């Protein structure tokens, strides 16, 4: 057996083993397993008994010699595997979208609508706080908020993103309206649920801030001023224009790198695209298309710029989280995923 035939057998067995493992874990369907198995068996037969493919070679006029026939079958197998991967990816995307829509619907249904109905009438600012296991911090953040800013009532809405530590109870005790997602899907999905709720509550302005204490509620007037003064539709809180406690050198460098990337892609100077301290007019949020479940901060900013919104950056202070550990992944993984979101959003 030649080297190319031997490698073909090895590749076929590897594909078959991976497909069997994926099926056992219910990641692929039985049909996909059968297709992968048929391809693997086909490649194995080619390596051991290539003469069995004589009619196929004759139909395509592939002459024997120099392993042309073997290479021809390998090319066909690669093409077939490519379409198989596309099929699996398509099924995965469909399932992921269905799960996302289900979680969002449950999030809206589980909101404190009865408590919300008792809110005083009038103009409102809704502050959305996505939170995952922040029971030790979220209450202090909510209690630090003023009741009114610029003549508008402040309504804190906490979206507990599959928390298991009493985050929802701590937020309610502090006075926030709360909804609980059944599973953890990421800050982006939690934010979308919060936005939908804020719009249903009749918010004029929607603010987002972290529930871990890194963003200061007493800086809400700074965040809201450009919108209240009708000089902006979207306000981005920038630590580089203000002050911050550095987490690590890698993350500090990353802020500058992503700033340059987003500025080049959008044609607008943005100093802090990864800041989660944001404010936006409600009518702008109704027009934005948001799809990312995680690493959402750059998506909403690029979407706002795409809609030609008046984007203004203001200086804010970012401090170290009050307690607990960060939910962000390792720096390199975070950088890679954040970069993907930037490119995907820009290419829409």
Give a written overview of the molecule.
With 348 residues, the chain is of the alpha/beta class. The chain folds into two domains: 3-103, no CATH class; 110-346, Spore Coat Polysaccharide Biosynthesis Protein SpsA, Chain A. 51% of the residues lie in helices and 15% in strands. Strands 1, 2, 3, 4, 5, 6, 7 and 8 form an eight-stranded mixed β-sheet that branches. Helix 4 (68-109) packs parallel to helix 8. The longest helix has 42 residues, at 68-109. 35% of the residues are buried.
Brief rundown of the structure:
Helix content is 51%, strand content 15%. By secondary structure, it is α/β, with parallel strands linked by helices.
Mean pLDDT metric: 85
Radius of gyration: 26 Å
Q: Which class of secondary structure composition applies to the elements?
A: alpha/beta
How widely separated are the two ends?
49 Å
CATH superfamily of the largest domain: Spore Coat Polysaccharide Biosynthesis Protein SpsA, Chain A
Query: How many DSSP H or I helices?
Result: 13
* Bulk shape: elongated
Strand percentage: 5-15%
The CATH architecture of the largest domain is: Alpha-Beta Complex
Poorly predicted sequence stretches spanning 5 or more consecutive residues: none
How many structural units, i.e. domains? Answer: 2
């Amino acid at each position: 057996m030649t080297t190319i035939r031997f490698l073909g057998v090895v590749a076929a067995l590897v594909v078959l083993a991976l497909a069997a493992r994926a099926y056992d874990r219910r990641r692929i369907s039985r049909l996909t397993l059968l297709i992968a198995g048929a391809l693997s068996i086909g490649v194995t037969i080619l390596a051991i008994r290539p003469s069995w493919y004589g009619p196929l070679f004759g139909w395509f006029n592939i002459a024997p010699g120099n392993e042309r026939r073997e290479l021809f079958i390998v090319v066909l197998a690669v093409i077939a595997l490519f379409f198989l991967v596309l099929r699996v990816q398509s099924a995965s995307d469909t399932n992921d979208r269905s799960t996302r829509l289900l979680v969002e619907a449950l999030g809206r249904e589980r909101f404190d609508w009865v408590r919300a109905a008792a809110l005083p009438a009038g103009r409102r600012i809704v502050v959305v706080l996505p939170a995952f296991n922040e029971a030790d911090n979220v209450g202090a953040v909510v209690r630090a908020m003023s009741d009114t800013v610029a003549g508008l009532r402040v309504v804190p809405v906490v979206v507990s993103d599959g928390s298991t530590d009493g985050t929802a109870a701590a937020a309610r005790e502090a006075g926030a309206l709360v909804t609980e997602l059944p599973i953890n899907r990421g800050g982006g999905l939690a934010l979308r649920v919060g936005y939908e709720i804020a719009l249903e509550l009749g918010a004029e302005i929607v603010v987002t801030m972290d529930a871990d204490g890194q963003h200061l509620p007493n800086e809400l007037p700074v965040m809201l001023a450009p919108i209240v003064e009708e000089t902006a539709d979207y306000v981005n809180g920038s630590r580089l224009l203000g002050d911050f406690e550095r987490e690590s050198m890698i993350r500090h460098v990353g802020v500058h790198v992503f700033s340059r990337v987003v500025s080049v892609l959008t044609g607008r100077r943005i100093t802090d695209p990864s800041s989660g301290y944001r404010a936006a007019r409600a009518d702008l949020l109704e027009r934005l298309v948001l799809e990312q479940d995680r690493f959402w901060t750059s998506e909403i900013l690029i979407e706002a710029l795409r809609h030609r919104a008046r984007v203004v950056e203001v200086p804010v202070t970012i401090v170290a989280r009050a307690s607990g550990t960060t939910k962000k992944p390792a720096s390199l993984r975070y950088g890679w995923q954040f970069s993907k979101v930037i490119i995907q959003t820009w290419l829409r």
